[in-house]
Design goal:
The structure is a homodimer of 371-residue chains. Chain A is α+β, with helices and mostly antiparallel strands and 371 residues long. Chain A has 3 domains: 19-108, Orthogonal Bundle (Arc Repressor Mutant, subunit A), CATH 1.10.10; 118-160 and 259-369, Beta-Lactamase (2-Layer Sandwich); 165-256, Enolase-like, N-terminal domain (Enolase-like, domain 1). The first copy, chain A, is built from 16 helices and 10 strands. In chain A, the strands form 3 sheets. Chain A has a 5-stranded antiparallel beta sheet, with helices on both faces. In chain A, strand 1 (87-88) and strand 2 (97-98) form a beta hairpin. Chain A is elongated, with a radius of gyration of 26 Å. At the A-B interface, strand 4, strand 5, strand 6, helix 11 and helix 13 of A face strand 4, strand 5, strand 6, helix 11 and helix 13 of B. The first copy, chain A, binds a DNA duplex (30 and 30 nucleotides) through residues 55, 57-59, 69-73, 75-76, 78-79, 89-95.
DNA sequence: CCTGGCAGACCCGGCTGGTGAGTGCCAGCC
DNA sequence: GGCTGGCACTCACCAGCCGGGTCTGCCAGG
């Protein structure tokens, strides 16, 4: 009794190998064959459970799925599905609920998610259309995602490493303090206080500005630190100190800080969901505050151009094991990613359509903005 | 039985009139006199309940508070305190817990909060010390607040209306699109995409830059929109369109956007707290996402230079009625505010000390940064 | 005015029995 | 051989009940 389900659980815990066809539903691959009837029953159970939130019994399956057999037959099939690890019962004499593997199978079998319906597409277009700049656009994207799915939305700004600097500016804020401004061609602005050496004159600053303008503007962001180091070495001695201060300020601004740009929305939906216990809730919220981890997780989940689904235990991060993640890459000069986070019991079909549609429209509006 | 407590509840719901001495503890004012023993008993109940989380009975009060009387006497006093509305019992034959009014009284009677202990002060100094710019400083402030109190921290950046513009820059991102950069002397940077009229040349942009540099740089932020309008009117016709685009972009960037800069930290602590039910939790999280409301609430609660406490029903915002807010104003060129949000059952003495200490040190480090 | 004592209220945990949903199994039917 | 109806069984759930423990309110006496 305890052993037979082992191979299946094993498969579930190793999603990466078959990652490419995971969300496409094209190749059933190593998954055990299921006859048509089992597939329909599983689908009925998932759909019903997602909709009602209660374990679904053989009787309800018969009512819902229009296969012309009796409840007893369905029971036999359900017993087999349980043996295969796709469904389980919370306790004896309760209906069945899908396991993570069951959801996985269900998602894989989704032929391909239908287009999002018109009204929703329009809503997205409307909300994204009035964005004033890229940052605003991403914030709105996050907002529209969480509104449409009623789940937690995540949007990660594209890394600026591969973009180019449009403007490098050094503003004097107060004696001894400057503000280094770096503007990338995505419209992203980073800033960093610079401690200027004592005795730096306004004329010195002007010369530094000129040097920066000539040698740094237009360079790829990830090349800038090296360029700055060279500039420091070659600089006339009176500018060296200032340039060194600039270089040491620019490094971190362009490296780490830059990665953590994450927009999160709809956190309240987590608290409203009965599926999460107090402890899970707390951990998930903590995770949502750790922007760096979040960015990594999301980036890892968005290799392909299709939406990717990570269900429960498929997530590598411990605290995410009680939840599912649906994420997709988008392109805005370089790659960014967006997605939603919610209970494993979510409406995958609709969520997939929504994530896909939002990503598409985001790209459209981005090109609108940058032209 | 139901009526006698009415007048007290009324007082609680009208904190504003006596707002000035609310948190000072200087004037008992209209509050009913309490003899020394009642005060000590109330204090014992609040302290014990905050520490243990369980209703406290007469026996425990005797053990904890070293007044040399019997439990029976304490019971009589407690009965009186209940009559006055300061404490209540969750059910018959349970111990007492403080009401919002009880907490209020307790807070008012706190002579004045002691200095925060050394180690904690040092921790604050250490964490704030390594801030790289003002925005970073405020983020760190939020982080340290939530770490020390294990509550939700809130930090609102000072409004930039009264600060001056250090730099106005118009960057050309792509043909037809510019990015307007506004840097205030607080180090705050706002940006906004500008749709440039077709056929705008680089030379035009240069001229616009010059005009902006001459007339806008150094002006108070709230004066800028008016200045821009004048510039548009007086501009040579070939620049008028560009300037108009800039003016229409600058307005909103300087107005609304600016107010919503709120740093929130430690939200996970809400979920861990048993005091909040699912529904409250969800509402509080939603509130934390509405940055505008949040900013208003916090600004309203920080009139004086002392920390202000809003306990449960004293909060005007419905969703906050299940929580307490401890907030204080800080000055960084203009006013900002910071504070924490948690269950009414919080350690007010420690929280008050912490909020005060953090606000103080924030101001120190700010002057460090801007000198 | 304080105190010890005592009755009463009530939460809580455990136990019990009834109900209902859903299962597993089996014998019989097509 | 697969499907079906029927039936016994298993629990979760609910309500009621009981005993133990706690804390209160009250009272009579110091």
């Amino acid at each position: 009794m305890p052993e037979p389900s082992e191979p299946v659980r094993l498969r579930v815990e190793l999603p990466p190998p078959s990652a490419s066809d995971e969300s496409s539903g094209a190749g059933p691959g190593a998954a055990p064959e299921l006859d048509e009837r089992k597939v329909r029953i599983l689908r009925a159970i998932v759909t019903e459970y997602v909709a009602r939130g209660e374990p679904v019994g053989s009787k309800r399956v018969v009512e819902v799925s229009e296969l012309g057999v009796s409840a007893a037959t369905v029971r036999n099939e359900m017993s087999a599905l349980e043996e295969l690890g796709y469904i389980t019962q919370p306790h004896t004499s309760a209906g069945r609920i899908p396991t993570d593997a069951g959801y996985r199978r269900f998602v894989d079998d989704l032929a391909d998610d239908p287009e999002l319906d018109g009204p929703r597409r329009e809503l997205i277009a409307e909300l994204l259309g009035s964005a004033s700049d890229v940052e605003d656009l991403l914030a709105r994207t996050s907002s529209v995602l969480s509104q449409l799915t009623r789940l937690v939305s995540l949007v990660i700004a594209p890394a600026i490493a591969a973009s180019r600097l449009r403007l490098v500016e050094l503003v004097s804020l107060a004696p001894g303090t400057g503000l280094l401004l770096l503007v990338a061609d995505t419209g992203r602005v980073d800033k960093r206080l610079v401690e200027l050496p004592a005795g730096t004159s306004e004329a010195d600053l002007d010369r530094v500005r000129t040097v920066l303008g000539e040698h740094v503007r237009g360079r790829r962001v990830d090349a800038v630190p090296a360029v700055l180091r060279t500039l420091v070495e070659e600089a006339p001695s009176e500018l060296r100190e200032v340039l060194a201060a600039v270089a040491s300020a620019a490094g971190p601004a362009l490296a780490e800080d830059t990665v953590h740009h994450v927009f999160v929305g709809g956190q309240a939906s987590l608290a409203g969901d009965e599926a999460f216990e107090r402890q899970h809730l707390s951990r998930l919220l903590r995770l949502l505050e750790e922007r760096a981890t979040l960015a990594r997780v999301l980036a890892d989940s968005t290799a392909a151009d299709e939406p990717t689904v990570r269900i429960g235990h498929e997530n590598e991060v411990e605290d995410l094991r009680s939840a599912s993640l649906v994420a997709q890459r988008y392109r805005l000069i370089t790659d960014g990613s967006l997605g939603v986070l919610g209970p494993t019991r979510m409406d995958y079909a609709t969520v997939l359509s929504t994530v896909r549609a939002v990503a598409e429209q985001l790209e459209h509006h981005v090109t609108d903005l940058s032209r």
